[in-house]
Amino acid sequence: MGKRLVTLPFPHHFSLKAHLMGKLIALGTALLLLAACSPSKKEIVIGGLFPLTGNTATYGQSSKQAMDLAVAEVNRDSGIEIAGTRMPVRAVYEDDEGQSEKAANACQKLISRDKIAAIIGAVASKNSLAIAPICQESRVPMISSASTNEKVTEAGDFVFRACFIDPFQGMVMAKYAAFTLKAKKAAILFDNGNDYNKGLAEVFAKKFAEYGGAIVAREAFTDEANTVDFKAQLTNIKAASPDFLYCPNYYTADAMIMKQSKEIGLSVPTGGGDGWDSPELVKIGGAAVEGCVFSNHFSKDDTSAAVKNFVRKYKQAYGAEPDALASLAYDAAMILLSALRTAHSTDPDAVKEAIRTSTVAGVSGNITFDEKRNPIKSAVILRINNGKQEFVERVGP
Ligand code: PHE
Question: Which of 202, 274, 296 most suits a substitution to test ligand 1, by most atoms within 8 Å of the C-beta?
């Protein structure tokens, strides 16, 4: 390269400048070559941020497996064309352990270290609330697969979700308690340090009262990941003699709550939200969770072609049935992958626009976004019967 510089047709007094320019050109060429060889230019990197360990680990495991499935399908289909070149998609995962500080750090890492084009996650609303401002600020499109707290997408126009929101989910269970179970007096037991639990408790209370019921006890604890004894709260609840108990927490805490409720002699129909969807609910709760009901995004027993097909593929890949988390992570990944395909680009604005205007026939329902970047979808009610989730009904938006 140095030799070629000498032959550059610059007048003598420009030679130093020319020499420097030549160096710069050489450097530029080398960088371009490097970039062309570096994997980041020949593949599309997307991030997945899920709780792979901790008290909500089954959420993360299911989500990751489903996202892997979506990515594998697209790659089998020879990837996605970006600016005229077909590229494979590579997913990189980070574990938020169900904690918001870890989620924020992991999100930063995915953005600065892995240079992700977009992110799928988080699961827990409090973690999505922690990463949404980071994604917005860094202009990285984010699709939370499962965070239902209303505020998540308020961080800005780069933030989307694949699931319904809690004002709807809370209403669904309030209706079921008031009209199907004909409950008059409800109690609520929830984690007041978690946006999801707090938000859902509020909606339920408001709606149940609207439907003519009374909230006779409202008991709380802080940090379900570190709480194992709920008997003091349950004793207060028992004294109020409710005919329905609403527990809008995650599966580990709620399974323990239902167990301890029986132990203190409080036998009351109990309901919850999507946070109950884990094989661990029955493993931990055993007989105490029999007959309990919860709202969810998906039932593996749905007879629609989309669900049947997904259940078959998932079982084949992992030897287990998919849960709502899997269906949502798969749908979130499909929204993103099809947006990349439409945009022919990983430019954040182009991808964000393609997501915003997309329509995806998902496993968890059809997804189009409203002006707040939330999809409008139906919910299902499931009941635990003989240790299995039994489909009760579907409730439209
Ligand atoms: N909706 C829960 C939240 O926002 C997460 C969740 C979704 C858990 C689906 C289980 C199933 O925190």
Answer: 274
Q: How far apart are CA 196 and CA 145, in angstroms?
A: 14
Give CATH 3.40.50.2300 domain extents, the chain: 44-164+301-378, 167-296
How would you write 133-161 as a 3-class SS string? HHHHHHCCCEEECCCCCHHHHHHCCCEEE
Q: What is the CATH number assigned to the segment(s) 44-164+301-378?
A: 3.40.50.2300
Concatenated DSSP letters for 148-205?
A: --GGGGGG-TTEEESS--HHHHHHHHHHIIIIIS--SEEEEEEETT-HHHHHHHHHHH
- CATH 3.40.190.10 is held by the domain 167-296: no
Mean pLDDT on 39-63: 92
The tens digit of pLDDT for each residue in 222-251 reads 999 999 999 999 999 999 999 999 999 999
Contact residues of ligand 1, CB 6 A cut-off: 59, 123-125, 146-149, 196, 274-275, 277, 324-325
Atom of ligand 1 minimally distant from the CA of 323: 11
Distance CA 367, CA 164 (A): 10
Task: State pLDDT tens for residues 268-325.
Answer: 999 999 999 999 999 999 999 999 999 999 999 999 999 999 999 999 999 999 999 9
